[in-house]
Amino acid sequence: MTKEFQLILNQVNMKQPFFLREWFAHYGKTANTVLLPQSAIGKSTIPVFLEGKGIACNRIPLYDTILPSDALTKLETALQLHPNFLAVFASPSAWRNFLHVLRQTSFNRPFRIASIGEVTTAAIKQDGYNVQLEPKLYTMNHLIDLIIEERSK
To answer: What is the pTM of this model?
Structure first.
């Protein structure tokens, strides 16, 4: 490893949230792809980290102030490629947009849902879905910790 590469790697690692490094330590050797539904303006932190580690990250912008016109095509493709997934939601609007697009697909398999907290969970339950994972403290770090904990059981 060159000194230049090591310096870049160290800078990237220092900027990455702890949960990404912890997730990679636990699952990086077995994970091939990650499905990441998010807003059109979502940060690229997670995709950049994963792709830098050789893990494909299917970032699917599902919403903005308006639903992107290609959301259906992108979700259908992702569902075909990754039919078994844990869908993670950090806001009611992310859930509503995901569900709106999901209902336009022929996807009919069960999937697990993780929610960041009670407001998002209430929106999900209102639509007749159950949330399998919700952290006691409503932060993304605690949600990721819970996901990691559940996966290691």
So the answer is: 0.59
